[in-house]
Write a structure and sequence with these properties.
Blueprint (H helix, E strand, L loop, with lengths): L2 H11 L18 E4 L14 E4 L1 H7 L4 E3 L6 E3 L8 H4 E4 L2 E4 L2 H10 L4 H10 L4
Antiparallel strand pairs: 1-2, 3-4, 5-6
Length: 129
């Protein structure tokens, strides 16, 4: 993947993880350019298939394209930052990210967006610790 594409992805995301919305400034490890549809699933390096992701979201997502909604047990596609609106699927409730749809809930669960480490970090960033 060439540097111009990498820069386009970083600029488009505004320095935020496109999944959990963590700001790169608040997390020392470098954010990753993530394949929404993994190369192993016939994805490619086009900008439409790339997202900026913090290392934790990228690691938990892996090559997955779907997950189970913990509420309905329905298998659903994961949130896609290129085609889905974040605010239609998620909302912040203080340091907690809530899922508004089955797709949102499944993505939160698979990416472990509300694990204890993330909640502690968000609480700290909100000045609530």
């Amino acid at each position: 993947m060439d540097e111009a594409v990498r820069q386009l992805v970083r600029t488009r995301a505004g320095g935020l993880c496109e999944y959990c919305r963590l700001n790169q400034e608040h997390y020392p490890p470098s954010f990753h350019i993530e394949h929404i549809r993994a190369l192993s699933h016939q994805g490619d390096d086009s900008p439409e298939n790339l997202a900026l992701a913090c290392p934790r979201c990228n690691r938990h997502k892996g090559p997955n394209l779907s997950a189970y909604d913990p509420q309905t047990q329905e298998l659903v596609t994961l949130f896609n930052p290129r085609t889905d609106s974040w605010s239609e699927h998620f909302k912040f409730q203080a340091e907690f990210i809530g899922g508004l749809t089955s797709q949102g809930r499944a993505t939160i669960e698979l990416l472990k967006m509300n694990d204890e480490e993330r909640l502690i970090l968000r609480r700290h960033l909100l000045g609530r610790d």
